[in-house]
Amino acid sequence: MTRRRRHAAWTWLTKVHPTPDHAHKLLLRYGRASLPTGALWDVVQVPEMTGLDALKQVRGPAFRDVSRSAVLFLVPTTGGWGMQGTAYLTDGTMVCTPAPDVTTPLFSAPPLLYWLTPPDGSGTLVDPADLFEVLAPLDPAKEGPIWCGLCGRTGPTTVTHRPSPNGGGTHVPAHEACVIAGIVDGRVVHHLDPGDQP
Questions:
Q1: Does 54 score more than 60 pLDDT?
Q2: How many angstroms from the chain centroid is the CA of residue 113?
Q3: Is the peptide bond before 137 cis (omega within 30 degrees of 0)?
Q4: What residues have CB less than 8 Å from 143, skipping those under 6 apart?
Q5: Distance CA 92, CA 38 (A)
Q6: Dihedrals φ, ψ of 118, to 5°?
Q7: CB count, 10 Å around CB of 24?
Q8: How far is CA 98 from CA 28, 85, 150, 162, 163, in A?
Q9: Using CA atoms, how far apart are residues 65 and 105, in angstroms rounded to an integer?
Q10: 161 φ, ψ to 5°?
Q11: Within 2-127, where are the H helices?
Q12: What is this structure's pTM?
């Protein structure tokens, strides 16, 4: 990546944060930062093996979260996603995102987050129609239950609708007990690191 494209990628990624300079510092220091969806992009989270297979057939930014056994694709904020075995993160859901330069696993500092296809700063995103078409025959649901969007742990999940701060909502897999308990005060949080709050 050239210096100009690197700068563009960092600027594009951090400007979704309420304080881009703070996000930039977090990315520099930790190699990751919690960034909100719904401004420039949303996220489709797919089970790891299915996501790696799909990546061969779609273009656009995507990263791997080894601790969640998942691949996350950045898509336009148009909404309307619905596929069993995947999660659609939108409406301000915070997503722990690697720095644009992190393209290999950071074995010394879990969680293991790294880009499979890093953003190039142009604003190019994964086409959700292409992604849906590629995922349909792969059937992500066959890979089994994925992480709970409320407590962050794996295990049998049921799809629920959670309200967001702006009155919208996002569908994520969740444990029934977490839904009943109203974990994280009704706001979906995807893998927030301590100190990474916006």
A1: yes
A2: 10
A3: no
A4: 47, 48, 49, 50, 85
A5: 5
A6: -75, 155
A7: 18
A8: 10, 23, 21, 25, 26
A9: 9
A10: -115, 125
A11: 3-14, 20-30, 48-55
A12: 0.74
Stretch 16-37: mean pLDDT, rounded? 93
Phi then psi for residue 119, to 5 deg, are -65, 150
Report the distance separating Cα 71 and Cα 155, nearest Å.
18
Q: How many CB atoms lie within 10 A of CB 158?
A: 12
Mean pLDDT, the chain, as a whole number?
77
CA separation for the pair 141, 139 (Å, rounded): 5
In this predicted structure, the answer to whether residue 8 has a pLDDT above a threshold of 50 is yes
pLDDT of the residue at 99: 94
Which neighbouring-strand residues pair with 35? 95
Contact 42, 29 (CB under 8 A): no
**CA distance readout (Å), 191 to 6, 21, 97, 110, 151:** 25, 21, 10, 12, 9
Q: What is the pLDDT of residues 63-105, one digit of tens each?
A: 998 878 899 999 999 767 878 888 888 888 889 999 999 987 6
Q: How many C-beta atoms surround the C-beta of residue 129 within 10 A?
A: 10
| pLDDT one-digit tens code per residue, 135-150 | 988 887 777 555 565 5
Examine the pLDDT at 18 and tell me if it is beyond 50: yes
Q: Which helix (H) or strand (E) holds 133?
A: helix 128-138
